[in-house]
Amino acid sequence: MARMNSDSIAPIRPRVVIVGCGFGGLEAARALRGAPVDVTLIDRTNHHLFQPLLYQVATAGLSAPAIAAPTRHLFRRQPNVTTLLGEVTSIDPTARCVRLADGGTLPWDHLIVAAGAAHSYFGNDQWSAVAPGLKTLDDAFEIRRRVLMAFEAAERTDDPARRDALLTFVVIGGGPTGVEMAGTLVEIARHTLPGEFRRIDPSRARVLLLEGSDRVLQAMPPGLSQRAREQLEKLGVEVRTGARVTAIDTEGLNVGDERIATACVVWAAGVAASALGRALATATGCETDRAGRVVVEPDLTIAGHPDISVIGDLAAARSHRAGHEPTPVPGVSPAAKQMGRLAAANLLRRLEGRASQAFVYRDYGSLATIGRHSAVVDLTTPLGPLRFSGYFAWLFWLFAHVYFLIGFRNRLVVLMDWAWAYWSFRRYARVVASAGAPARPAAEDS
Fold first, then answer.
1. Are residues 143 and 254 in the same domain?
2. Catalytic center residues
3. Are 379 and 253 within one domain?
4. Looking at the structure, do residues 262 and 396 belong to the same domain, yes or no?
5. Residues 365, 335: contact at Cβ < 8 Å?
6. Are residue 338 and residue 391 in the same domain, yes or no?
């Protein structure tokens, strides 16, 4: 219900605050276009990031602007949306405001929390300094710097053992990010860098993919999972399943009793909900699951707080399809988009005095690229599952990702960069800070 201005008979439009400009927050704000509400979209960065291609920035295949779009630019033609740069640290449901890291507050009548997820090191947070994950542009820049600097250091050293360690790259986690990262690292070593060094042969670099379970790409059917492993091994990746990492330091890592000397470890093994989930649980008394995700009602609101919705990776949501038992919703971008649209629609329903609707996740399938001409695709169609791998799966993956990129310019730039890389095997987004400089992005990428 609209509030009334004490100095006027004109109603004050409901204030909607959306925390986070990932896939869920972006979709929720877009769904409120033309609605009689004032939306404030707040995020700790000034851009929306297309995370499925973030590994391409980390491996010098794409520059940062190709997969990121300024938030203000995205909403320049949506006058009911105000974008703010800031970090939300706590939520006060009684005062109906969010508190920011700089001490400011932001009032709301309706709140949509889409704060996303962070890296999970399963209780070994000290590993984060030596095994960076991949969630943000800063993460991608740091991984890219470590990868390229490893080759540079190997060129300078005279110690064969040290050189072998510098040319050993380990990716921990066999999900889509880990599989794509490992395959691309091999391509860099085998096709991009040869001929550029005088004292080392980059093609002799060793890339290991470690997965703690019994197969890579656990979310896919076993047949596609096995096919992905075969394609990785054909590229030159050493795939180890059932490999539990017990220690990581600056000189290498331990897998059980085995010591692997390496100077570059990439973490792709697990995610945890944003710390804002715990803050929300403390403030509202809502439940969280083991990963810190907020347990939500069928309509994505918090129990006892119909004015607060939680979506995306922060929500422990279930799909409530008619005639079926509720099923967990995976933490993927299509689910976040669908949740964003429903949260916005339910907000408008409540404003109109109508009942909200339960969330029903429509699963379109999943896909992952392995490397050049290699990918696996698992699609859900009205006629049943459609599963294929190899060259045509790679083409499907390529055009699907270009299609879902934000903005025509980004689609065009990515297509051009990929076409050039396909024919030339070259990656030109390889500018990094000097060896002694802090690990920060190069100027042209920031």
1. yes
2. 180
3. yes
4. yes
5. no
6. no
Strands 110-113 and 105-107: unpaired
**Six token digits for residue 90:** 């706590």
Binned at pLDDT 50, 70 and 90, residue 433 comes out as low
pLDDT computed for residue 3 by the predictor: 56
Residue 314 lies in domain: 3-44+86-117+272-351
The conformational region for residue 259 under phi > 0 = left, psi -120 to 50 = alpha, else beta, is beta
* Residues 258 and 311 occupy one common structural domain: no
Q: Quote the longest CA-to-CA distance of the chain.
A: 81
Burial zone of 155 (CB within 10 Å; 0-12 exposed, 13-18 middle, 19+ buried): middle
Long-range contacts (CB closer than 8 Å, 24 or more residues apart) made by 431-436: 432/141, 432/144, 432/145, 432/148, 432/149, 433/145, 435/149, 435/152, 435/153
> At how many degrees (to 10) do helices 176-187 and 222-235 cross?
20
Helix (H) or strand (E) holding 350, with range, is helix 333-351
- CB–CB of 121/130 below 8 Å? no
Residues 297 and 220 in one domain: no
Token pair recorded at residue 425 = 């095997």
* Residues 122, 354: Cα–Cα separation, whole Å: 43
Query: Pairing mode, if any, of strands 105-107 and 97-100?
Result: antiparallel
pLDDT digit string (tens) for 169-209? Answer: 999 999 999 999 999 999 999 988 999 999 999 999 999 99
**Two structure tokens written together for 225:** 């999972």
Pairing, β 252-255 against β 237-241: unpaired
The confidence band for 418, taking pLDDT boundaries of 50, 70 and 90, is confident
Q: Which amino acid is at 202?
A: P
Long-range own/partner contacts, residues 161-167 (CB < 8 A, 24 or more apart): 161/261, 163/200, 164/206, 164/261, 165/251, 165/252, 165/261, 165/262, 165/263, 166/263, 166/264, 167/200, 167/202, 167/204, 167/205, 167/206
What's the average model confidence in pLDDT over 139-155? 95
Residues in the chain, total: 446
CA dihedral 356, 359, 360, 361 (to 10 degrees): 150
Q: What Rg value do the Cα atoms of the chain yield, rounded?
A: 23
